[in-house]
Specification:
alpha/beta, four-stranded parallel β-sheet, globular
Length: 224
């Protein structure tokens, strides 16, 4: 399972969404011997820099429809694909998400090791909301601002969601910012502010900065 999840992140990026994990018979002679392996279904939004549309010419409904169509084309049931996109942030902060994380850990963490949750961009929403099931958390380029293009999307420090407040974090936290990040919703200054808010809330927090390639959607118009 651990190797499969690593492969998903390498192929689709750190924000890849794991849609399902299923134990299936291994291929070839290993299957004949009764061996089993994990089948992982995952998806991720990919943004093309050269063909990016300006926010004022793109509606939230159009963006959601685009991603739903991509998931459906990848083999996901169309109704399920639409539900995944419409409710992705609500899932990130839900008990169902925490239950799914714990179910995966039950399979892979057989030595009962300390678990640290890590999330990049919108993945930080999952990490903050589910910090209580981990020994510590790490967020990098966390989305900390709302979007006018997708106004229903959540973000870390969302005033309407208690589980996304810095004060909800009760585990040691690490914040990583990219000084070259051009995305309006993952600005370095906001990552610094998140660290300051965590510290003010009494969280044992640390912060580091890196200088990597600039974000490829500087206007923050990527819905996922």
């Amino acid at each position: 399972m651990r190797e499969g999840l690593r492969a998903v992140r390498e192929d689709l990026g750190p924000d890849a969404l794991v849609l399902s994990t299923t134990m299936v018979a291994a291929e070839g002679w290993r299957g004949w011997l009764g061996c089993r392996e994990v089948e992982i279904v995952a998806a991720a939004e990919r943004v093309s820099v050269g063909r990016r549309q300006e926010p004022e010419h793109r509606s939230a409904d159009a963006g959601v429809s685009d991603i739903s169509a991509r998931l459906a084309a990848a083999g996901l049931d169309p109704a399920t694909a639409a539900d995944v996109v419409q409710n992705i942030d609500e899932y990130r902060i839900s008990v169902d998400h925490a239950t799914d994380i714990l179910a995966v850990l039950k399979q892979v963490n057989t030595d009962n090791l300390d678990v640290f949750l890590s999330g990049t961009s919108r993945g930080a929403i999952s990490v903050v909301a589910n910090n209580l099931i981990a020994a510590g958390i790490s967020v990098s380029s966390a989305v900390t601002r709302g979007s006018t293009v997708f106004p229903d999307r959540l973000f870390v420090n969302d005033p309407d969601v208690p589980s996304l407040q810095p004060g909800f974090v009760q585990r040691p936290a690490h914040v990583l910012l990219n000084t070259n990040d051009l995305c309006l919703f993952t600005r370095p200054v906001d990552s610094q502010a998140l660290f300051d808010d965590l510290t003010a809330a009494g969280v044992n927090a640390a912060i580091d900065a890196v200088s990597g390639p600039a974000a490829d959607h500087p206007r923050g118009d990527a819905p996922l």
